[in-house]
Structure formats: C-alpha cells, structure tokens
Amino acid sequence: MAEFAPTESQRAAIETRGGGVLVSAAAGSGKTKVLTERLLGYLTDPDDPKDLDSFLVITFTRAAAAELRSRIMDGVGRALAENPDNRRLRRQNALCQSAQIGTIHSFCQKVLRENCHLLGLAPDFRVADDDRANAMKESALTRVLERRYQNMDDYPGFQLLADTVGAGRDDSRLEALVMNLHGKMQCHARPEKWAEAQTEGLKLIGASDAGQTVWGREIMSAAKKTAEYWAGEMDELVRALAAGNVKIYSAYSPSVQDTAAGLRDFARALEGEWDKARELAAIPFPRLGSLRDSPDPELSEYVKARRDECKKSVKAFAEQFAESSEKLLVDMRRTAPAMAALLALVLDFDREFSKDKRRAGLVDFNDLEHLTARLTADENGLPTPLARELSQRYTEIMVDEYQDVSEVQDLIFRSVSKDGKNLFMVGDVKQAIYRFRLADPAIFTAKYDSYKDSSAAAEGEPRRVLLRENFRSRREIIDGANGIFAACMSRDMGEVDYDDAAALRCGAGYPGTVPPPELLLIDTPAGDDDEAPDKVLNEARVTAAMIKKLVDEGTEVFDKGAARPMNYGDAAILLRSATAVGGVYRRALSELGIPVGSGQGGGFFTSIEVSCVMSLLAVIDNPRQDVPLIAVLRSPAVGFTADELSAVRGCDKRSDYYTALKKAAENGGKAGAFMELLARLRDAAPDTELGEFIWRIYNELDLPALCSAMTDGGTRLQNLMLLFEYAKKFEATGYRGVHRFVQWLRRLADRGQEPDTGGAQGVAIMSVHRSKGLEFPVVFLCDTGRRFNRQDSRSTVLVHPALGLGPKTTDLEKRIEYPTLARTAIKLRTDREMLSEEMRLLYVAVTRAKERLYITASMKDPAAQVEKLRAGASSPAPPELLRQAQCPAQWLIYAALANGIKLDYKVREDENKPTAEPAEPPAPKPDEKIMAELQRRLNFAYPHAAAVSLPSKVTATELKSRLSDIDPESGVLAPRPFGEFRAPDFSKSARPLTGARRGTATHIALQYMDFAGAIQPGGAAREIKRLADSGLLSPEEAEAVDAKAIETLMSSPLGGRMRAAEKLNREFRFSVLLPAENFFPGGGEDELLLQGAVDCWFEEADGVVIVDYKTDSVTAEETAGRAEFYAPQLRAYALAVTAVTGKPVKEAFLYFLRPGKAVKMEKKL
C-alpha cells in the first residue's frame, strides 16, 4: 500500500489542536482518511500519546462505524508490524474492538444504561423497532382522543379542532395530523417548551400590524428581495434598450421604466407597515409601445421574455398581499384556539405514549436522544454536572457527517465536549440531504461562518479547515460540477455560497481526456405527467442503450491505476425516487440483456415471483381478498387467462371473487385444482415454521423451475432465496404467522427497503440518497425532468421549527378554505428549504461520478424550453430565477447555457415521435364573409356558464360538511372528489368507538326505539338493550348510547309532541330534484338531485315539524352558534319534505342530546 502523503489542508486537519475544529470536507476529499490519520496521530504521538478508549467517534451509520474501526485497526496493525515490541501499540490493538466508535444512538444508549436510575428507566430497557413503536403510538392516540371526546368540556378548543382541521368521516385526518406534528417536534431538545412558546405566540400579544409578526416579517422580507431583484433587472433592460436601437428604446423603455419604479416603491414600502406595502403591491405593467418590423427582433424578444418572467414573479408575491393586516390578524386569532388545542393534544399523546413505553421497558430512537439531552443539558442548554463528568473521559470527540446533525444531537455533543474545545467535526453542508430526518444544515453553516481559519485562530478558539481537493473524479467531472454549482448554488439556493472556498479542486491523476458531462434532453409527447409510462420508459430505454453502447465499444475506465474495458458493474443509474421508477429502468436494461445489480432499482417486491408469493400468502391468510386472489390466479405460476377469470366471475356476479371461485371449482378444472392447493396450504400454515412453509409454496407451484425458464432466471431464483431468508429473519425476531409476515413485507416495500446482496457485476440502480458516500466510474443521473415534490406544503397544517404552525382558515359564508398569514409564511420558507435541499441532492448526485457523467431528462419540446430559459441564463443565476424552475433539469439548462464549455447539452427527439408531414402549398386567401361568420362562431359564449361548475347531485349533509372539506384552491363549492378506499377494520371491537361511530349508534337507537317505553324510568336503557339483543346495535355501540340523554329528550316538550304525533316518520330517506338556485346562487333554471335522510318528522294540524338529532359535544350556551352551522342542512330537509309530501314545513328543530336542548331554526324555511 502506498504511503499516505497528505496535502497541506489535510495535514492541517490532521494536526491542528488547541480548540474546536470544523473540517469542511468537499466530496471525494478523503475525509475518512483524515479522520483516521488524526486519531492514529494521537495514539502514536511520541510526546503525549493517548489511548484509543479515550476517544468518542460518532459516525452516521453502523456501516461507516465498522469501516472506520477497520481502518484504525489496519493503521495500528501497520504501526505494530514496524515495532512489534511496542507494548503501548499492542494495548491500542486490543482496545480497537471495545473503542467507542459508533452511531449517536449507540452512544446515547450507553449513557442511558449507565444513568437509568436518574430517569426511572429499567436497566434492561430495549429499543423498540419501528413497527412496535408505531403500533404503540396508534393505541396511545386512540385512548387520548377517546378521553377528549368523552370529556369535551375539559379541553378548550378541541371541538373547534375536530370540526375544522380534523373534520372528516372518522378521526384519520386528525390522527395523521397529530402523528405528523409529534414527529416534527422531535427536532427540538425540549418539545414541550417549543409547544408552550408556540401557544403563547398564537395569542399575538401586542401585534397591531401583520408586519409585526414573525410571519409577516418573513413574507415582507422575501417580497422585498424579489422586488429589488426585478427592479434591477428592469433597469438592466432599460440600459440594454438605450444601447440598442432608438426605435425599440422609444417603444419599450417607458413601460419598463414604470415597472421598475413601481417595484422600487413597493420594496421601500416593505420596510414599513403591511397595509402601506399592500397598497403598492399591484406593480404597473403598461402596454409596450407599438413596434412593427422591429429592427432588432432578438432584442425585442429578449425584452418581452424578461418582462413576462417579471410579471409572473410579481403576480406570485402580489397574491400574498391580497388581504388587509386587520383581516389577517383576525384570521390568525380565529384559528388560535384550534392550534392551541392541537399542541395540547400532541403533548398529551406524547405523555401517554411515554407511559406505555416505560411499562413495556422500551424506548424509541427519539427517546435515546431526548433523554440523553435531558441528562447532559439543562433547560438553558448549559452542561449538567453529569455532562461535565462525562466530558472528562474524552481526549476528543470526533463526529463525522456533522452537516446532518439535529438540534438535539448538537446539544449533546456540545454538552459532553468541554464546552466544544475538544470537538472535532467533519462534514460538508453541500451534501446535507437529510432534513426529512430532522437534520438542520444551519448548525454546520453557523459554525462555518463564525469559526476562523486554522492559521488565524488563537489558542482555545474554534477554527475551521477546508478540504477542497477531490481525489475521486476526473478534471472533466470537476469542471462540470463547478460549472453547474457556480451558476446555481448560493446561500439562498443551497444554504451555502459556491464561492472559491466551496469549489472543487482536482486532486486525482487520471491520464488522457474524456468528454465533459452531457445533459441529454429527450423530447416526449407526455407533457408534464411525471408518471406517464411512455415518458419514463422511453427515457429508461435511451439510458439503457447508452450504457450498452459504452460497454460494446470497449470504453476505458481506470481501476487501481490501470486502464481496462468498462463492464456493466461500473455504471450506476441514480434517481430521485428509485421506488417510483426504478422498476421501469430495470425492465429497460433487461430488454437489452443488461444485468442489474442485486437488490437495486425497486425491483424485488415488484418482481413477478416475489409479488406472486406475497399475494398467495395474503390469500392463505384471508382468501376473501379479490385483488391478491386474482393476482395469484393470473400469475404464470397458476396461469388463468383473462377469459377464464371472466368465466369464474360469471359463476357468481354478486358475491366476492372467492365465492365465485368456489362455485367454479365444483366443475373441477383449473379452479378445482387451485382450491385444492389453497386448502392444503391453509391447513399447513398454522403448524409449519415460516421458512419451511415458504419453501413448500415454492415446491407446490414449482417456482424454481418456472423462474429458471424465464428471462433473467438467475436473478429471479436469487429473489426467491432472498424471500426465504426474509421469512427466517422475520421468525427469528419472535413474531409468528402469515398475516404478520405479509404486513411486514408490505411495510418494507412501502419504505423502499429492498434486500442488498452486494452483487457488483450489474448496473446499480439506486436513489441519490442511497448513493451518498459511494462512487462509480460511470454515472447516469436520470429522471431530472421530474417535478419537485411539494407535497409537504399541502398538509392540513404546515409545521416549521422556527415559524411554528401554519393552518388554513374557513370562510363559512363563501364556503372556501384559504391560507392564514402563518401558513403563507411557512410555505414560503419550506419551499425555499426544499429547493435548497434539492440543490444539495443534485450536488451529491453529480459528485458520485469518477470518470463519466450523463444526465437525462424527459420533457415536452425541450428545444423550446431551452430557448425560453436562455434569456435569464447567467452565472451565477439569481435565486429568484432559479426558484421558478419546476425540476432539476431546468437548473442544469441554465448552467449549460451559462457555462456551455463545461457542461454540454443535447436535445434528442422521441424516437416514436411522428415525422413532420411535407410542406403544403400556401393556402388561398380566405373569403371575407366566411371569415366573419367563423369569427362570430368562435366568439360564441355558452349562455349557461355558471351551471358548468354545479354538481349534478348533492346530499343535505354535504351542504354543511363540505364547508370544512373543500380544497383551498377550489374557490366555490364544487363536486366532492373521490376519496381513498379504506381497508376494512376487523378489529373495531377492540378499539374505542370514534365520535362518528358513537353518533351513528345514537341515531340507530332513536330510529328503532319505542318512544313510549323510553319515557318510563329506565326505559331508554331497556330499549337500548333490546336493540343490542336483536343485533341492531353491537355491544360497544349500545354502551356508547347515552340513555339519560334520550330520556331527557322524551320528557321534553318537543319529545311530547313527537310521541303525540299520529304518524312519526323516522330516518326518512329522500331523492328529489330541486332548483339549483336554492343552494347555489347563480344556478339559474338548472336542477340538481338532492339526497339525504331526515332523522324525524311528524305532522300537526298546521304543518310539518322536522327534528334533527345532534350528538355534538357542546354546552347549552354554545348550541345557538352551532345551530347556525347546520342551518343549510335543515333548510334542505324542509325543501325535500315539502317536495315529497306537498305539505309545508312550519318548524324545524335541532336537538342537541348532550346538553339536552332544542334549538328552533328561526330563519325562513
């Protein structure tokens, strides 16, 4: 092995002492080698040697820890080989296995075991796996919600929370919200303190202007930057016009100057009050002067393009100032009680979850960090006496990948490191890509900005060392990367300036030259649909063909200093989401006979053989599942054709498919054979070990032989063996049963956790996240035309560590939901942070390549997109422009246009795109009369445009409930979109009833109850028992019905009128056509179908009386306000009953069972 010869910067990182050290290590700079050599330097220091067990070394993963331990052992072993009699080195060699080299969680676990008595933890506590922890969370949250529903009055704001933010058919929306907020709160060292601060901040004490709030300042600051940027751009346009043709200048400059002046006025106003800025947010864009036959068409088009970009950007920030300061603050105060209730609910859930874990002797990974933080730091973030004691153990604390630490982890490291003076941190903020795991790149950036260079730092002062040399990649790759990120990465777009200090230096000594990185834009007719099969498959096939061509042509790569022909194992395909499209790339490679690395590309769980076995296991567990049953029958292992499946369905068109299959099996044939197979397997399942049972399935279906005969048979056989190993691994955990195994496999598939056998002779397909820390001779970065994922900004309530909670608010009059001030601000910040993370993810992907880099993107008409982006191309590109990009490919186009010599780009048309037709002769001059008639017809306006947005059907309940379910962009009450199908819950009896199910149970009781018997003492309870005995109510539902509340109703004046009625109509269902104008202003003469069910109505001498029962948890004082919420529903009932019976409705009542109060609707029915 060649002797390590460090560069000057590496030597500084290895040898600098006397204070905290931050090493900013660029991609491929040898940071692991530096860390190893620094540690070995301490061990072999001739003047003051240290023992290995006096160091704490933290790595990001267990694999990294194992690699580092191995390197240290090798280093100590080499030193010992040179000096075999050195007793000290022999001691260090013995300490290697016990040295504290591991992850943050292994360190926390050690600290907690040593000090479990201080926290009341069991000494033998165990760390819960994710599945166990998630199950415990669900149970704890169910109990917490049940307590709130049962004692609503004890929890202020919860009713509002449940009716607005958590509204839905069940509690799933609220449960998801609580889980999401609880997870994001774990980034704080003291989540409860953060929640308290947010609750206090929601009160808006002292805020009289939106601009005084943290959210208003966020919005105004961002708008000011954008306005100043575009004002400068408009000034540049004026200068360009002045330097060009006078005619163009005269026509265009007045409009451009007015826009620039408006932008500057708006920017200045943003330094003051919200409403003053709002008055100037409508930036003027006067019409450009008339200009025929421009003397400089290129300049004219450039001006128009830049002006259009400015207008688009201005429109976006102007919308943020649509509401007045007063309205925004009123909306924030209106949502504050619900948000305070949400925070209280999350804290209550956390306490309940913690109790469950303690009773079970468990902690989760968040506990490991938070409990350690509580032991080592006080509420003010200062080290505790225990932390001081721990710090004395360590000569130095070395932390790798420091850019990926969280606030909690940083607090722990600072607390146990002698005030940070013996803390050695290595990382690269340009590779911070784990914000979704609560990492905070700003921690690394703050240290980088505040630390002095090592050469300038005084004794005891923290210092930084920059490792800029890249020893991984060819110069062409380095130049390409620098070209891309000099143009695109900045403090605003990546959270780090890509300046001279950040730029890569080429330290590798490759001979010869290779082509520069290539950006290949593939024309596709699929447009913007990222998931369009043709779009993805076409790009995958282009990529596969390029890989095959490189290998077939004998492209050289360098391996251990010598050239050799490239093989398929040298190539890697990196994707933003391998789970989403990796299987398509695997398929494209297989079509050309190109092997794929084992466990790569999302192909394991979606492979025919594995999905067949998983579906069969699901059917063995429960055969009445149509989808997995039909999947098994259609698979090559069973071989039903589509016609045969249809014939089975014909045997019983009403029942489930399993029933139809049983009837088909009566005639023998394939159906009979399969039913016999299924019966054997179901009989064997309970008494057979899982691994043995999986092997029996293989033999029964003859799967090994079948896979061997298929394309890529070796990989398919390997997949079967991996599934067999999975079964043994699952059973080794102590779990049993086919059902749990199938659920476990599905969770692994959902998370994208595929088995990795370490195969290296095929093309690697993986996500960019997974590629971090790896390197490949040839890299294909694909699917860069995929739009950025902005799903997080669509959550019901947005959450940000610094800005808090961002809810929506509901306008009940207009029937729309719209964002609050806080939500707008948080969306702005999270979008910026998301784009910064995407920029860093692009950096990680590009720097994986050693010798060749190819980047592909599919898009519609790429040549036109290139021309559209050309006007703004510059290096560096302004962040305001980059934020308008929809995908990484557009950033790369900017870079290619700005630095064309460093990053080539090519446009490749879709091979399946039809060729252009031959040019036709010029068309004759059109007839003027025909043109006039054509114009008249083209100007036709549909006279009933307002009716287009009307639903054809609406339910009475929707007239109330849709107010809280409507999409924020919908604007008006629109037809409800299809919801997701929910899996049946066969364990409902084991879980407390939700509020919705309790309400349903009460309505069933009132529908079938004998009112005459219910008014007697104890009569309601007897009636409820009768209904339960008859099966109309389940035992749980019967217990949930409030008998006393029903007795109160029966003994009330309204109840007396109901009992006295000659005919009582209960659960009166209706479907009736009514004028749309009754429900939707502007509905015109159209009719819509109104459906619903009236709880109760009866007739008296002078008209009909309607009664609607409500189980809402409200006080008597709150019923009037709640009744207004239900007024549209009651009005719809009245219209329907009158339409059906022809009799007028004289009164309508809402009866609130919990407070025992009837509210008469006063408005005209």
C-alpha end-to-end distance: 92 Å
Overall 3D form: globular
> By helix and strand content, what is the structural category?
alpha/beta
- Determine the fraction of residues in helical runs and give it as a percent range: 40-55%
Largest sheet: 7 strands, parallel
Average of pLDDT: 86
Task: Describe what you observe in this structure.
With 1165 residues, the protein is an alpha/beta fold. Helices cover 49% and strands 13% of the residues. It has a seven-stranded parallel β-sheet, sandwiched between helices. The chain is globular. It starts with 7 loop residues before the first helix and ends in a 5-residue tail after the last strand. Mean pLDDT is 86; it is low at 912-920 and 961-990.
Q: Main attributes?
A:
single chain, 1165 residues, alpha/beta, 44 helices, 29 strands, 13% strand
Secondary structure topology:
Blueprint: H1 8-15, E1 21-25, H2 31-43, E2 55-59, H3 62-82, H4 87-95, E3 100-103, H5 104-114, E4 126-127, H6 130-150, H7 158-163, H8 172-185, H9 191-201, H10 214-243, H11 246-269, H12 274-279, H13 297-319, H14 325-360, E5 362-363, H15 365-376, H16 385-391, E6 396-399, H17 407-415, E7 423-427, H18 441-450, E8 452-453, E9 463-467, E10 469-470, H19 475-488, E11 505-506, E12 518-523, H20 533-552, E13 556-559, E14 562-565, E15 571-575, H21 578-591, H22 608-621, H23 626-634, H24 642-650, H25 657-665, H26 669-684, H27 690-701, H28 703-708, H29 713-732, H30 738-751, E16 764-767, H31 768-771, E17 776-781, E18 798-800, E19 804-806, E20 808-811, E21 816-819, H32 821-846, E22 849-859, H33 862-870, H34 879-882, H35 888-898, E23 904-908, H36 928-938, E24 953-955, H37 958-965, H38 995-1008, H39 1011-1014, H40 1019-1029, H41 1035-1040, H42 1043-1051, H43 1053-1060, E25 1064-1075, E26 1087-1100, E27 1103-1110, H44 1119-1141, E28 1145-1152, E29 1157-1160
Parallel strand pairs: 1-7, 1-9, 2-3, 2-6, 4-5, 6-7, 8-9, 10-11, 12-22, 12-23, 15-16, 15-17, 17-22, 24-26, 27-28
Antiparallel strand pairs: 13-14, 18-19, 20-21, 25-26, 26-27, 28-29
